[in-house]
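This part of the workshop introduces the protein records we will be handling. To make this concrete, we reproduce a full record directly below.
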Amino acid sequence: MQISDVLTISLRQFWKHKPLWLLGAMAALSAGLVLSFTLLIEIPSLQATIAEIVGNDTWLSEALSDLLPLIISLGSIPLYVLGAIGVTLGVLSTDKEPTTLVSLVDILRRSFPFFWRVLGVRLMFVFGLLAIFLPVLCLISIASIATFGLGLLCLFPLIIILIPVSYVVYSLMELTETAVVVENLSISEAFSKTWGLFRANFWTAMAMSLLIYLGVGLVAGVFALPFLLPSYLTELLRLPDSAITILFALSCLAVPFHVLIQGSMLTLQKMLWIQTYLALARPAIPLTETVEVFDVG
């Protein structure tokens, strides 16, 4: 597998098939909704209204502010899964028929048969990661409390080890999801095949994982930065309520652009994982495009 080939093909696909960004935006919608909620509750007039409704019950107010984003995130899981499947099917469709316009409705319709399998893969890996992390975090907390913080220093190397473990788990999850859609496999078949490919190409897969999550994640973080500034500016500059209201209201109006940008970055991530899987699975499955010079025109 040539990493340069994977990057070149993925970037060409990303720029050429911009309608697929909308599927990525659908997958990123939950983040946009949570961001909108977070910005809205910072508006002083809304805070006053919530205080009148809730009264002196601060526990209820805190519970609402914590639970609503969680409910929004859980309710948006189907959109995320369908969007991720749609990007994969869209890439495969446009490569088979490059002159045909992408029909997002048709892609979404063809995504439904894969929904439960891809959701099952994601839940399997998420709960697996929790099974690894929770006992370790509990051990660290108990040791830190019992030793007045010294245990935390002793167990710090264990925390460092969890970082590459999380990269391995997320890499396997993305590749397994891709295998389900690309080869129409069951969850067990997809995991078995992905695990074999991952073991045989461990360092290459980890290099791609770092490139995808650190590279694309850094770009996405830069675009997300302006939406974090209002909270810091209000504390730093001590703005009046009217200025705070205008600042957060304008930020809410810009959320759709944030969703589109984050969705496009998610689309690029999925395209990179698709091409990574196809490259690792070669010669059984060829790369979906012949490598050419990248042209943004």
Observations:
- The longest helix spans residues 202-237.
- Residues 3-115+186-281 form one domain.
- The chain has a mean pLDDT of 80.
